[in-house]
C-alpha cells in the first residue's frame, strides 16, 4: 500500500516537477564537475630580469669582490704565470701560422730586421721583451715542480721561493736577450 501511495504522490504535478527539476540540477552539476573548463591562452615569455637588476630591485648590496683584498705576492705571481702561459701560446701560434702563410723563411725576416739598423740597446730591449715570458714561465714552472714534491709549502718558503723565482726570471731573460 505504501508503494501505491507514493506512486500516487509522484503523479501529483507539484511533486513530479520537483523531482524532475532535482534530476536536471543533479545532471548539470555532474556534467560541470566531470568536464573541466579549458581556457587556451597564447604562451607569453616571462619578463627577463638580469642578475644585477634583480639585486637592485631587492635592494641587495653589491659585493666588494676583489677590491677588499690586499694584493699579495702569491696571487700576483699566480696571475702573471697564467698570463705568461697565454703569451707563450700566442708566440707559438704566431710562429706556426707565420711558417705556413709567409712566403719566405726565417733567415729572410732576420735580414730585414738587421736592415733596419736598430741600435744594440733597442735590439736588446726587443729581445728581452720577447724572452721575459719564457724566462718567467720557466722559472715559475720549476717552482711549481718543487711544490709538487711537497717541499716549500709554508708561507715563509712560498714567499722566499717567489722572490728567488723573480731573480731567476731576470737571469734567464738577460741570458736569452744577450744571445
Automatic annotation (TrEMBL):
InterPro entries noted in UniProt: SQR/QFR_C/D, Succ_DH_cyt_bsu_CS, Succ_DH_cytb556, SuccDH_FuR_B_TM-su
Signal sequence residues: none
Cross-referenced PROSITE patterns: SDH_CYT_1 (PS01000), SDH_CYT_2 (PS01001)
GO cellular component assignments: membrane; mitochondrion
Residues passing through the membrane, by range: 79-101, 121-139, 160-178
Bilayer topology: Multi-pass membrane protein
Keyword Manganese: no
Main location as per UniProt: membrane
One protein family per Pfam: Sdh_cyt
Keyword presence, Nucleotide-binding: no
Pathway participation: Carbohydrate metabolism; tricarboxylic acid cycle
Location within or outside the cell: Membrane
Top-level taxonomic group: Eukaryota
Any single biological process term in GO: tricarboxylic acid cycle
Protein keywords: Heme, Iron, Membrane, Metal-binding, Transmembrane, Transmembrane helix
GO MF: electron transfer activity; metal ion binding
Family matches, as NCBIfam families: succ_dehyd_cytB
Protein name in UniProt: Uncharacterized protein
Organism the protein comes from: Leptidea sinapis
Amino acid at each position: 500500500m505504501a508503494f501505491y501511495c507514493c506512486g500516487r504522490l509522484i503523479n501529483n504535478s507539484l511533486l513530479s516537477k520537483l523531482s524532475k527539476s532535482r534530476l536536471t540540477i543533479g545532471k548539470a552539476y555532474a556534467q560541470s564537475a566531470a568536464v573541466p573548463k579549458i581556457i587556451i591562452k597564447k604562451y607569453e615569455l616571462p619578463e627577463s630580469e638580469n642578475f644585477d637588476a634583480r639585486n637592485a630591485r631587492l635592494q641587495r648590496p653589491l659585493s666588494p669582490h676583489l677590491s677588499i683584498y690586499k694584493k699579495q705576492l702569491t696571487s700576483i705571481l699566480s696571475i702573471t704565470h697564467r698570463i705568461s702561459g697565454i703569451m707563450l701560446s700566442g708566440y707559438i701560434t704566431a710562429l706556426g701560422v707565420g711558417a705556413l702563410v709567409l712566403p719566405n723563411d726565417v733567415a729572410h725576416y732576420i735580414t730585414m730586421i738587421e736592415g733596419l739598423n736598430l741600435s744594440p740597446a733597442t735590439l736588446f730591449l726587443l729581445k728581452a721583451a720577447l724572452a721575459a715570458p719564457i724566462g718567467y714561465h720557466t722559472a715559475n714552472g720549476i717552482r711549481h715542480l718543487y711544490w709538487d714534491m711537497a717541499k716549500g709549502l709554508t708561507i715563509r718558503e712560498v714567499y722566499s721561493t717567489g722572490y728567488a723565482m723573480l731573480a731567476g726570471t731576470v737571469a734567464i731573460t738577460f741570458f736569452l736577450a744577450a744571445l
